[in-house]
Amino acid sequence: MLKANIYVTLRKTVVDPQGLAVKNALKSLDYEQEVEEVRVGKLIDIKLNMSDRKKAKQIIDQMCKKLLSNPTIEDYSFTLEEVE
Amino acid sequence: MKFLRFGVVVFPGSNCDHDCFYVLSNVLKQDVKYIWHKEIEVRDVDCIVLPGGFSYGDYLRTGAIARFSPIMQGIINFANKGGLVIGICNGFQILLEAGLLPGAMLCNKNVHFICKHVYVKLLNKNTPFTNLYKKDEVLKIPIAHNEGNYYIDEKGLETLKENNQIVFQYCDNPNGAVDNIAGIVNKEGNVLGMMPHPERCSEKELDSQDGLFIFKSIIGGI
Q: Does any CB of chain B come closer than 8 Å to the CB of residue A67?
């Protein structure tokens, strides 16, 4: 069985209000020096009933384009791993 | 007044469907029916209303799941044939996800849910939804949303401007929306999406009646 770990993030050109709010909160916790930028995204895990990695890659890619991300504002990336 | 047939679409989590139904049926005496999202065809209506609310709990992205409800293909076909579609708040977000309108919604700039009356300026009165307003009229109208920060890239914004697709602009931008955009139409002008709620300001008891003219324009225009 394969599991896909899908990461959906706002595009670099899009301002991320949540990321900015989190950055400000970290600043108030005295991490101002250490933190350069914060971007908030989503992690979506999908367990697949298949073992063919090439096919799985194609299918996850289609899912990301059709539903899991909005290409107008978001980018996505994913990794595949073997699970029991 | 003419007698039109309106269809108010109900998704799981819609919560302004009754308000829209009430204004159209009780205030404006029109023929209104609810359309459950699992229906597959749009039948016997002149105008579709996608109401506000939190369809599917706003899971994944606002409007992202509702966009794949069975009724949506029927609504896309209806719109492509020139049928009038108005999406209010969550309805606007669904129209964006469905690709019937360009752009996308981001979280409000201040990361707060904003619920208050705002002033919006009318930019285009030559649409089936705004023909009864005066040119450059300013409307007092409530907003209530967490994701109303409209985003479109520069090229897309140019296209909106060239085609007069920007219908409403906030006078004092509450959410960070690009170019103060509060509402747009598609290029053909038969699909309107707007974040403010006209159904919440359509009776004199409700502080403002500025929203009523949107529904009256639709009725007068067909």
A: yes
Which residues in chain A have Cβ-Cβ distances shorter than 8 Å to B149?
17
Q: What is the pLDDT of residue B222?
A: 60
CA distance A17 to A11: 13
Hey, CA dihedral for B58, B64, B70, B73, is it positive or negative?
A: positive
> For B103, which of A18, A21, A72 is closest by C-beta distance?
A72
Complete domains list, chain B, with CATH: 5-221 (3.40.50.880)
State pLDDT tens for residues B104-132: 999 999 999 999 999 999 999 999 999 99
A to B CB pairs, distance under 8 Å: 36
CB contact under 8 A, B108 and A13: no
Pick from A14, A17, A70: which is nearest to B61 by CB?
Answer: A70
Instruction: Flag whether pLDDT at B61 surpasses 80.
Output: yes
What confidence category does residue B207 fall into, taking pLDDT thresholds of 50, 70 and 90?
confident
What is the interface pTM, i.e. ipTM, of the complex? 0.88
